[in-house]
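Form 7-S
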Amino acid sequence: MAGREQRLEVRLIDGARMVAKIGDHEVSIDLQEKLGGTDSAPSPTELFMTSIAACKLFYAYRFLSRRGVATNGGTSTITWESNKKAVEVAKVQLEMPEGVDPELVEGCLKMVRACFVTASIEADMKIEAALK
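Output:
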């Protein structure tokens, strides 16, 4: 069963600098100077890590806000280690401004683990590329 096809476009604009057109939004992308960029915007890897951190925070928000927990000001901090080929490990630390009742922590973490972005990665998502 095929899923719903979605689309976005990333365009090179100057050297390694790029802009992603995502619906009505544009996101700048660049690489560090040592990789040929100008470091004027987040790198693809940083955006990838941002997607994981944001997804985890959204799932925590969804779980906690439905239980009356204050979530405005909540944060998701991600740290990662990588080698020259790939990110090897990423760790996400979530924090809510007023803390979380210990009785809700395990349920919240269960929901956070179901994040769509990491579920896609862990499901061995197939990535195909073509050049014309």
